[in-house]
Specification:
This protein has 8 domains: 161 residues, 7 Propeller (Methylamine Dehydrogenase, Chain H); 150 residues, YVTN repeat-like/Quinoprotein amine dehydrogenase (Methylamine Dehydrogenase, Chain H), CATH 2.130.10.10; 91 residues, Thrombin, subunit H; 112 residues, Methylamine Dehydrogenase, Chain H (7 Propeller), CATH 2.130.10; 122 residues, Immunoglobulin-like; 178 residues, Histidine kinase-like ATPase, C-terminal domain (Heat Shock Protein 90, 2-Layer Sandwich); 103 residues, Rossmann fold (3-Layer(aba) Sandwich); 134 residues, Arc Repressor Mutant, subunit A (Orthogonal Bundle). It is built from 21 helices and 83 strands. The strands form 20 sheets. It has a 6-stranded mixed β-sheet, with no helix packed on it. Strands 63-64-70-69-66-67 form a 6-stranded mixed β-sheet, with no helix packed on it. Its EC number is 2.7.13.3.
Length: 1364
């Protein structure tokens, strides 16, 4: 077809299409390079799973989010960019990977890192290798299993399976051979997941996934451009020769559409797409878009042109129906055309400069619908249009200069028809016109006030229920009323000026408004009511519920309370109103108010008090509307005029959109760098979105761009964002700015974990519940990391603790100091009292001691009874000892309180030392010690305090004697050196333990030693030595080896220079008596009791063993007990135990506190020994503690006596012990010897004895009877039986059994039944001589004598006990 014919056909189709679109109100919007598209030739269109639009052009890939484009182009030497700028196809697989086919290969877009990755394949000649796909890609599709099919130009079909790293080429069978090199023109995957292909020269094929092969289906066509498979079982194929419909079931072409009337506008169909209404949209080359109704087979057309209903280009290479049924059309050189069904809710009528049959002007200022249904449209500057809607015809009128019967002005401000059918047209600047329908001419009327001035600017016309016609004017304008009689407009009331709104309510009240007031007109009295509004009243409207609404310019919408005369409610933009300039108010059939403003239209629900707003993006002529340009038609439709025509719509058809656009992050910047340049910040991400970021603290400057994918009204979308952990609440930046969605910037975010939450509304203002979120972790510097804080906390805690401890300690110290001061004062007071007490008590002690010692001393000198002399010696010795202890305590007390003032004088030091030495000679001799004194200068003189020096020497020598065993040696040496004199006291005693040497000079300290005496003293002697020597400015040291001895050395300075500040007497001190008093009288050597006496083999005296380490006590006890008992002595517990085990004393008297084994341990060992446990034990102690007494009793002590004890009491208790034991044994012997027994013993002992006798008597003739048998039949252990028999009889078990045999023999002989021999044999004794001997020991006579003496009187004198 020639060029002329084609364009002729286009013109015809254009007229048809324009008429159709004029009725539907559909408009087409355009996107091109002016809006940011990379190239106006669009080859392909795709919408991904998020709803983002993608466009492939001749020069790059574009994404579009409703606000703007983002362009992706090939960059030289950048492998992360697309391979080529010519984009043929775009596709997204089931994993949401975006595949882009170009003229030189295919790439997959990574949304996270904003990079493209090339796709590889295994070449047929080397299947183990990989090569990039570099051929031209015609089409890309994927199936439900994740396989991707790439149709190429000349390289055949590439199949990329989901888990494979490279694609493979699929061969096809040609008539001659199988080949890999062929042209795949189209690929389509239908809703059954079947893959259809069209291969050039082969025809229609499908891919067999079972064996990875291509199977030919139909070869009726050899070449196609595009292919679409619908849900009815048809495949539509666009070719250079028209459109073909292929029936899959019948395997045949069923229809062929070609260029012609009622068919295609051109034969070349290059793109196909089906919509939800069973229409097939066909993009053509040179013929626009053809819309085929598949059911009826009829066509509609979209053709190129200048109208808002026409395409931008005649060639449409791609068509896509998006998720909201918009039609996106990619054109050749015309960019993108969008047919948005959501913008067709409002029909827009505009002026078409290329069509006389159109609105006369776009500035619409007034409406009126006449009785015939004609719509009168007044414009501001264009005149008047009368639209015959059924016939779509416009009759236009305008001012014709020089024609008095034409419209007086082109600025029409109001149109009204009165009750007579007259049409009145008010103009702004030329008065009022009355239109003559018959002639089409206009009659002009003037509005002249009482002053003769004409008000040419007429604003409004209104006819009330009384058929009064009113006109308001502006510019010192008055209110006029039509005088029909005189056919002129007359001024009504000069007080009313510049009225810009007028209406009558249901009660007939006329309401008007001016620039500041709402006024109720009184037509009779002209006494009007005025109500201040503060803003111009632009509209007054009474709804169907008789609510009076007032629209103000700048003050919003007012609900006026006529009864109270005030504003009941005000609604503004804060309440959802689109703009506070309310120009017009209308009510629809449902009672909703429609309000036009300077910024769109609001639909108001008076019941719910909710606004719903509409803007130019919703299909309105623009956002700005005009004063008074609003009308509700008889059909219920509403007409609203503005600056770009007017909108006509049915409110019932303006439905709410429920679509909720997805919100995406379109860009992220970290430290002013795109995230693609800082991939290390991405911690976690999905296939197409980032879930978590980790940012260093010094790069925590973050920017986020986001968008909700709304394409019809993107400016109506509102955004809110909230950085949880940083912001206090949601941030509402409002609507998205032009050219983009939302943007957030956060600078210098401190370290922490945050959650960025972004949400948006849809175009209806409903908030999306689905938020876009990103977790953000801002890393702290090393000194603010958790482990650093943990360290800080530990350090701080330690410092706080240390400070707390310091303060606590300080408080404690302060408190202790206060207490110490108090205690010191009290202690000083107590010490003073104690010192006074010691002083007084010493005198109290010394006076009676003097009265004791001196008389006894005189008695001892006189001599007399030896025994009395010994007793007096004991008394004298212990009295001297007590005096010595008192003096030592007084000396220590003086030293402790520093009351012992040093008084120095020159003394012959040799004489002083020698006198001390001589004091201990007798004591050393009695202790069998080698005691010597040596001084190399007999004339040696020193400045010393004689008394203190004697005390020092006394303590050193007395300690040496005390700690040196008999046979040892003690040397006392004085050496004179150049400037000093050295004293040395050396012994061969037990020595000092190494761990005790450091504390030896401490007050009250006593070195522990097994070899030390048990009564070593108070621990003050060496303390006094050190104290007094240091007072002499000298020094004292010692050397000691445990077990070998000790050497003390004292160094004293010669002369008196070192005593400069001390008191020095001119004369030597008198010899003090303290030394004589300190010395204890040595004990007299006495021969131990019994040592020199010949041992008596047999005696009736009880033996007593005395165990005590104190010789005086032993001697005293021995003296006290020797008259009645045989007394043995032991110096310690171990010796006592040995003597008990060997000599079996009848009683043991032991001191508890002894060296080595103490008295309690001795008692325990005796009582645990079955051979010794019958021996009574008496324990003596100086302690009065109940604990010691309890322990002694628990260990089996028979008697516990505390010191000092009463002599008579001790003797009585010892005698009582022996008496108890004698009673038991007498009872036993009485029983054994068959004597009359009147002794009272416990039932326990009596029963035990009877059982023993019975058992032994039963076994008298039993040769196998042994101690074991007796033990078994008694049911006791051997040790317990022995113990009890020993206690009862004092005999062993063997002797006990023999006594019972002899008892039985005596009984047999007394009865007269047996003679001596027979009785012996009867009781198991075969040796008659042995029998006679033992019988004599027991009964004190021979058996024959016993028979003679007792047989005749047996029955009178003896009571023989029988068994049972």
């Amino acid at each position: 077809m020639g060029l002329f014919c084609r364009y002729t056909l286009f013109a015809i189709l254009l007229c048809f299409t324009c008429g159709a679109l004029a009725n539907t109100g559909s408009a087409i919007s355009h996107l091109g390079i002016q809006q940011g598209l990379s190239n106006n030739s669009v080859q392909c269109i795709y919408q991904d799973h998020n709803g983002l639009m993608w466009f492939g052009t001749y020069d790059g890939l574009n994404s579009y989010d409703g606000y703007g484009f983002r362009v992706y182009r090939n960059k030289i030497n950048d492998t992360g960019s697309i391979p080529h700028n010519y984009i043929y196809t775009i596709h997204e697989d089931r994993s949401n990977n975006l595949w882009v086919g170009t003229g030189q290969g295919v790439a997959v877009y990574n949304r996270i890192f904003d990079r493209f990755s090339p796709v590889y394949f295994h070449p047929t000649y080397a299947m183990t290798q990989r090569e990039r796909i570099t051929c031209s890609i015609n089409t890309i599709k994927s199936d439900g299993t994740g396989n991707v099919y790439m149709g190429t130009n000349g390289w055949g079909l590439f199949l990329k399976k989901q888990n494979e790293d490279a694609a493979v080429q699929i061969p096809v069978k040609m008539p001659a051979k199988e080949t890999y090199w062929y042209n795949v023109q189209a690929v389509y995957v239908d809703n059954t997941d079947k893959v259809w292909l069209f291969i050039e020269t082969v025809g229609l094929c499908y891919f067999d996934r079972g064996n990875n092969s291509i199977r030919a289906v139909n070869d009726a066509l050899r070449s196609v451009i595009t292919m679409e498979v619908d849900t009815t079982g048809s495949i539509w194929m666009g070719t250079d020769d028209g459109l073909y419909q292929y029936d899959i079931a019948g395997n045949r072409i069923v229809k062929h559409y070609k260029e012609g009337a009622g068919q295609l506008s051109t034969n070349k169909a290059v793109s196909l797409c089906s919509d939800a209404h069973n229409n097939l949209w066909i993009g053509t080359q040179g013929g626009g878009v053809n819309i085929l109704n598949k059911l009826t087979g009829t066509f509609q057309y979209l053709m190129p042109g200048e109208s808002r209903h026409q395409l931008s280009s005649e060639s449409v290479y791609s068509v896509l129906v998006d998720k909201e049924n918009r039609i996106w059309m990619g054109t050749l050189k015309g960019g993108i055309d969008i047919l948005d069904v959501h913008k067709s809710r409002f029909q827009t009528i505009t002026h078409n400069p290329f069509d006389d049959n159109s609105l006369i002007n776009n500035f619409v200022s007034a409406f009126y619908e006449d009785r015939q249904g004609g719509l009168w449209i007044g414009t501001d500057g264009g005149g008047l249009s009368i639209w015959d809607r059924p016939n779509n015809r416009f009759a236009n009128y305008h001012h014709q200069p020089g024609n008095a019967r034409s419209l007086s002005s082109n600025s029409v401000s109001c149109i009204k028809e009165d009750h007579l059918g007259n049409m009145w047209i008010a103009t702004f600047g030329a008065g009022i016109n009355r239109f003559n329908r018959a002639t089409g001419s206009f009659e002009h009327y003037r509005c002249v006030n009482e002053q003769g001035e004409e008000n040419k600017s007429v604003c409004l016309l209104y006819e009330d229920r009384d058929q009064n016609m009113w006109a308001t004017t502006f510019g010192n304008g008055k209110l006029y009323r039509l005088n029909r009689t005189q056919n002129r407009w007359e001024q009504f009331d000069p007080k009313l000026n510049d009225l810009i709104a007028i209406t009558e309510d249901h009660a007939g009240a006329l309401w008007v408004g001016n620039a500041r007031q709402l006024i109720r007109i009184n037509k009779q009295t002209k006494e009007h009511l005025y109500y201040e509004t503060g803003k111009p009243v632009r509209s007054i409207f009474e709804d169907s519920h008789h609510n009076l609404w007032v629209g103000t310019e700048g003050g919003g919408l007012l609900l006026f309370n006529r009864a109270k005369g005030n504003v009941a409610v005000r609604y503004s933009t804060a309440d959802g109103l689109t703009n506070n300039a309310v120009l017009n108010i209308l009510e629809d059939k449902n009672g909703f108010l429609w309000i036009s403003t300077f910024n769109g239209v609001s639909k108001f629900d008076p019941v719910k008090k909710v606004f719903r707003n509409f803007y130019q993006s919703d299909g309105l002529q623009s956002n700005q509307f005009s004063y008074n340009a609003a009308l509700r038609l008889q059909s219920g439709e509403l007409a609203l005029g503005g600056i770009n025509g007017f909108n006509l719509f049915d409110p019932q058809q303006v439905n709410t959109r429920s679509f909720m656009p997805a919100i995406l992050f379109s860009g992220i910047w970290v430290n002013n760098k795109p995230l693609s340049e800082m991939p290390g910040c991405i911690v976690r991400a999905g296939s197409d979105r980032i879930d978590e970021l980790r940012v260093p603290y010094n790069e925590a400057t973050l920017s986020f761009h986001f968008t909700a994918l709304e394409y019809s009204s993107p400016e109506k979308v509102k955004y809110a964002y909230f950085l949880q952990g940083w912001d206090k609440d949601w941030n509402y930046p409002g609507n998205a700015p032009r050219g983009g969605g939302g943007a957030i910037n956060y600078n210098n975010i401190s370290e922490g974990t945050y959650l960025l939450r972004v949400r948006s509304t849809n175009a209806e203002g409903v908030w999306n519940k689905q938020e876009a979120t990103i977790k953000i972790i801002v890393l702290p510097p090393w000194y603010r990391t958790w482990w650093a804080y943990a360290l800080y906390i530990i350090i701080a805690s330690a410092l706080i603790y240390m400070y707390y401890r310091y303060k606590t300690r300080q408080r404690e110290l302060e408190y202790e100091i206060k207490l110490a001061h108090i205690d010191a004062e009290k202690e000083k007071e107590i010490n003073d009292k104690r010192h006074s007490f010691f002083t007084n008590i010493s005198h109290e002690f010394r006076t009676p001691l003097t009265l004791i010692i001196n008389p006894i001393k005189d008695l001892l000198r006189k001599g007399g009874n030896t025994d009395s002399e010994k007793d007096l010696s004991i008394v004298y010795r212990n009295a001297r000892r007590l005096l010595s202890l008192v003096d030592q305590l007084l000396i220590f007390r003086k030293a402790d309180v520093e009351a012992d003032k040093m008084t120095f004088a020159k003394h012959n030091f040799y004489n002083l030392c020698n006198e001390v030495y001589l004091c201990f000679v007798q004591q050393a001799r009695s202790s069998h010690l080698n005691y010597v004194f040596h001084c190399d200068n007999n004339d040696m003189e020193l400045y010393v305090d004689r008394e203190k020096m004697e005390i020092v020497l006394y303590n050193l020598i007395s300690n040496a004697i005390k700690f040196t065993p008999p046979g040892g040696a003690i040397s006392f040496t004085v050496k004179e050196l150049d400037n000093t004199v050295e004293l040395q006291v050396q012994d061969t005693g037990c020595g000092i333990p190494a761990d005790a040497q450091a504390r030896l000079f401490e007050k009250f300290y006593q070195a522990p030693s097994l070899r030390a005496p048990l009564k070593p003293g108070f621990g003050i002697g060496l303390y006094l030595v050190k104290h007094f020597i240091e007072a002499h400015k000298g020094s004292v040291t010692f050397e000691s080896t445990e077990g070998a001895g000790t050497t003390f050395r004292i160094s004293l300075y010669k002369g008196k220079a070192h005593l400069a500040n001390e008191t020095i007497l001119d004369e030597a001190q008198k010899e003090p008596v303290i030394l004589e008093e300190l010395l204890e009288e040595p004990a007299l050597e006495e021969q131990p009791a019994g040592e020199n006496k010949p041992e008596v083999a047999v005696t009736d005296r009880h033996s007593v063993l005395i165990a005590d380490d104190d010789k005086s006590i032993r001697q005293y006890l021995q003296q006290m007990l020797k008259d009645k008992y045989d007394v043995m002595e032991a110096v310690d517990g171990q010796e006592a135990l040995t003597m008990v085990q060997t000599r079996f004393p009848d009683l043991v008297i032991s001191d508890i506190r002894m060296d080595g084994m103490d008295g309690i341990e001795l008692c325990r060992k005796i009582k645990k020994d079955s051979a010794l446990n019958h021996i009574p034990v008496v324990l003596l102690t100086a302690s009065r503690g109940a604990e010691t007494e309890l322990q002694s009793i628990e260990e089996g002590a028979d008697l516990y006596i505390t010191k000092p004890f009463d002599k008579d009491l001790l003797l009585a208790r010892v005698e009582n012990i022996f008496k108890t034991r004698a009673e038991l044994r007498n009872y036993f012997f009485s029983e054994i010897t068959l004597k009359q027994n009147s002794l009272k013993v416990s039932a326990e002992y009596r029963e035990f004895l009877e059982n023993c006798i019975a058992i032994v008597e039963r076994h008298l003739t039993d040769e196998k009877f042994t101690i074991k048998v007796l033990v078994k039949e008694m049911g006791m252990s051997h040790s317990n039986l022995y113990k009890k028999i020993r206690l009862l009889s004092g005999q062993s078990i063997t002797n006990f059994i023999r006594y019972i045999r002899l008892r039985r023999a005596a009984e047999l002989m007394l009865k007269g039944e047996h003679n001596v021999n027979q009785a012996a044999f009867e009781v198991g004794i075969s040796d008659i001589k042995y029998f006679r001997t033992q019988f004599n020991k027991l009964f004190g006579m021979n058996p024959s004598e016993y028979i003679k003496k007792y047989r005749s009187s047996f029955n009178n004198q003896f009571n023989v006990k029988r068994e049972g």
